[in-house]
Amino acid sequence: MTDSLVTLAYLVAASLFILGLKKLGSPRTARAGNRQAAAGMLVGVVAALFETQILNPVELIAGLAVGGLVGVWLARRTPLTEMPELVAVFNGFGGAASALVAGAEALRLLTPETTWAGEIGVYPGRVVTEAGNVAGQAASAFGVVPGLIVAASVLIGTVTLSGSFVAVAKLRGRGPGAFPGIRLASIVVGLATLVMIVAAGWAAAVYPAVGWFAVALGALAVLSLVLGVLLVAPIGGADMPVVVALLNAYSGLAAAATGFVLGNYALIVSGALVGASGLILTRIMCEAMNRSLGNVLLGGFGATASASGGSGDEEDRTVRSTTPDDAAVMMAYAQKVVIVPGYGLAVAQAQHEARELADLLQKEGVAVSYAIHPVAGRMPGHMNVLLAEANVPYDQLVEMDDINPEFGQTDVVLVVGANDVVNPGARDDPGSPIYGMPVLNVDEAQQVIVMKRSMSTGYAGIQNPLFFKDNTAMLFGDAKASLKAIVGELKTLQAA
After folding, report:
1. Starting from the edge strand earliest in sequence, which strands make up the sheet with 336-341, in order?
2. Domain that holds residue 27
């Protein structure tokens, strides 16, 4: 492949990245955008491999085939509810790949082929050859700045690797938590990583052949792995989607740094786009939770949440239960019904039943809309994607800021598997761990029906006082089965 064709391929790849990101902004075009971005990545990878001639055509085709099959298998077997875990795993692998490629390329540049021929002496980190100080010449071409860029790629990539797998474990409720002295340990390890970065830059200039530079990079990689664990471990499970978005940005920055090492513009562009989009997503999620990024990242270090916020005496209070039959009658005679989808709806895959319920109510003249909290579920846009799969009209999806003023004039609110995003303690209880987080004001409606499997808490780990209010009725059971029962009762009422 000629240089002009490689450049053209990189241009095509960058264009596809940008178009794909633009289309990801809407549920209607998200799938097409994802396919375009994936095609751009494929074009960029193939062009880079042809340019560097790292692999022969057979190896290239074999690698693409194996990687593609593994990717398809993972995508098909992973339910939407576990997509954050899959994204976190991909982030970790991306960070590891960037770190390994940057380190390998640096060591290749710092070790001329002639080093291993005619060797006459070995000094600290340097091999002197009969051909002269070839290693010293390589050092002058590499320099301090490239060495620091390599170190940055290794740092960010390995922090992303270990932090991502800790995030996966915490999303599954099995991750490590904070321990006494974790703040001090994080500071010590963080300072040690800074020392190793400086050491790597110094070694790249002074002792360029494998020796000390390789030692510095290896020590930096080990310290960065530990640092990733220490940074993510104290963060609560409710904040893991924010952490996953931030780690996604890290993986992009690591790739961009590796692109500078390789001199590969496609990798720089794609890494920068991933990093920028990850940071934007992180900011959006923090704003939706009314929290700063610093509060999310540092809140777990030595912080103790108040026991208030619905986790005290309320657990001993009784709740009012209802049945699918009563819920159907209540909604059938309402004028306005708002459905609040949550993680429970996603787990049960009950979006189609929710759509059928809404259609039946609308046939009876009931005004139906869906209240969408920006962080409902486990990732931004989670509910939008689920409801789009069920062909719910997009104009029925109402964002939190627009729907909140309407709850006071709503007859019935049906909460399907949501917890923290409808907790009034975030609004009314200064002692609640989630105080200040914007929530859906469903408690202001005339009647609230909450569909849950049990009285278990949400990701925040606190009880919801909404469940004990006089205008709330609990409908326990699987969301899909409960919605089917309500739909069946509505059909019976309509046929009567």
Report:
1. 397-399, 367-372, 336-341, 412-416, 447-452, 472-476
2. 1-77
